[in-house]
Amino acid sequence: MSLIAARDLSKTYRMGETEVEALKQVNVEIETSSFVSFVGPSGSGKTTLLNLMGCLDKPTSGVLTVDDTDVSKLDTRMAAAFRGRTIGFIFQDFNLMPVLTVYENVAYPLVLVQKTGARERKQRVLDLLDAVGMADQRDKYPYQISGGQKQRVAIARALVTHPKLVLADEPTANLDHKTAYRVIDIMKRIKNELGTTFIFSTHDQKIVGEAEIIYTLEDGELVKGGVK
Amino acid sequence: MLDLLKIALRNLLRYKRRTLLTASLVSIGVVFVLVFISVSASFKHMMIGQITDSFLGHIQIHRKGYVASIDNLPLTLGLNPKAFAKVEKALNEMPEIEAYSKRIKFGGMFSNFMETTNIRLNGVYPDDEIKTSPLLLSRITQGEKSLQPGDIILPELLAKGMKVKVGDTVVVIATNRDGSVNGKQFLVSGILESATGPGGRDGYIHFEDAQEVLRMETMEISEIAIRLKDFTKLHSVFADLKESLGAELNQQGKPAFELHTWEKLSPFYNIAKMIDLMTFFVKLMLMAIVLISIMNVMVMAVYERIREIGTIAAIGTLPGKIMAMFLVEGLSLGVFGAVVGNVLGVVIIFLLDAAHLTFEFGRQKGLLLSLNMPLQDVFLISTIVITISALASLHPAYKASRMNAIDALRHV
Ligand SMILES: Nc1ncnc2c1ncn2[C@@H]1O[C@H](COP(=O)(O)OP(=O)(O)O)[C@@H](O)[C@H]1O
Ligand SMILES: [Mg+2]
To answer: What are phi and psi of B352, to 5 degrees?
Structure first.
């Protein structure tokens, strides 16, 4: 059984009179523990697709199951709870909480999303900070560290709840090349260690090469894809 | 430790100046209200004490109809011995009553043998009167602090105007209820300072002298002034008294007595009521200040942090938690403002009290304002401020919790 299954998935945005078909009849299955990338130019529908897979939005038509759950059947609260349990998010702009330290940012989901015992929480946070190489910066605030470091902290935060799926929408778009590779590399290593499924989108052809499975989107349609 | 309170406090510290400004506004409001309440309450209590302890007493009993024509001191509306005996019995049965004094009040002519003027007099038994109006003695500024038969204590304005001094002999002439005129010589034994309110400029003679001047065969009492042991029990004692005496009927089947608390007898009661009203509006103003300033800050806080809200919503923070986060923030601001304001307010009240402020009211000078710590008000104001801060944060917090994660994340 695949972790994600999309069947004729469509999403249409309505803005007054005009309609934008952001996704058109997308069919895709993603297996557990895979390292998947969606590529395509700006406006091709990558963010829309990832938002649907992340239970942040609902499809206009078609069926989408994530971890055996029909996403369109979840109400706002249930979707939030589902995300908190099952999905980790990495954002293009890192989106760390500016008032929290590196350590606290990573610990946040274990305090305010899930409830984890203090000892286990500490262990998990420190392990992940170690894994992303940020343990020595744990007491710094986001404004005191670089973009690449922020994204490494964000990766730790996304993984701290041990989610089955991590979604990263253009995680390297705001990073220089070297840093981008480093970030993708960390994600890949953790995927191999923990068996987490990673899905990231990018329009950077060079970064795409790091993915194991690549799907290409064009004008909302899945034009090409599969194992390399 | 990482929890809602910590995040809220860190966010408040993030905009130090704004937080400080809002908290200061709340604090200043609290200080103002606290000091205002304290000063106005002590002014009120002191004035009430002055009035009741100088001459009014806490409760007065008259024959039905007397108070309506109290300005002309009617002699036809007195209580006869039988009626007084009933009142006396009722009063003696009530342990809450400290003392009472029967008075014969009348208006007459006053002469220093050269000039003549009007005078209003109380005929009293000095021991009872002093127990009922304990400030009376302190109002005697010259002469003896006592009243013997044949003595008269004159109000200072009258003594001054008529150029009469302690030790002088004067004459009081009065018309009794049957219309016959009688006069009596008195020795001026003391001069009395004026007090605020009606009756504050009356003279005093001995009860028996009053009976003599008015040629009363049996005593006819104009007024019985009553002092309670505990002023705060005024209304319950009054109700009890009214129950025991209100049922007494005269020969015509109408109520025989009328009872009044000081409130119905002194115009200061209206000032006291106005002070209460002002206090209420000042509290209302504080509520408005807290509501507007905290709501303003929280609306801004939510607006500035839309992307953060989107982030925490996306990673699975439940709406209730997001709402709580902002509620705690607004509440913390209110609590901080309330605590600082109350501490400052109490310190200022303490300093004002230590400064021994005095003021003048009417002809009374050097009244000492003694402020007490308004613990009850501190509690009340804190409750108001904290409740209003929660209310003010409610709407912004709710909006934050209902935000759509995608829209919030896209917000620039
Ligand atoms: N909320 C929205 N309302 C209207 N149109 C939208 C909205 N979000 C995305 N779109 C449109 O949908 C299409 C796909 O956008 P998106 O999924 O963001 O693409 P990508 O992430 O690949 O750049 C674009 O044409 C975009 O303008
Ligand atoms: Mg995009």
So the answer is: -60, -40
CB atoms within 10 A of CB B239: 12
Q: What residue ranges in B166-212 does DSSP mark as E strands?
A: 169-175, 181-192, 203-206
Top residue of B1, B2, B10 to mutate, by most chain A CBs within 10 Å, is: B2
pLDDT at A58 over 80: yes
How many distinct structural domains can be found in chain A? 1
Domain span including residue A192 = 2-227
Chain A residues in contact with B314 (beta carbon < 8 A): 54, 56, 83, 89, 91
- Answer whether 0.90 is exceeded by the pTM: no
Mean pLDDT of B176-199: 86
Q: Does B365 score more than 80 pLDDT?
A: no
User: Residue B271: CB partners within 8 Å, gap ≥ 6?
Assistant: B47
ipTM above 0.90, yes or no: yes
- What 3-state DSSP class applies to A220? coil
A99 in B contact zone (CB under 8 Å):
yes
Give me the CATH number covering residue A27.
3.40.50.300
CB pairs under 8 A between A and B: 75
Q: How confident is the model at residue B252 (pLDDT cuts 50, 70, 90)?
A: confident
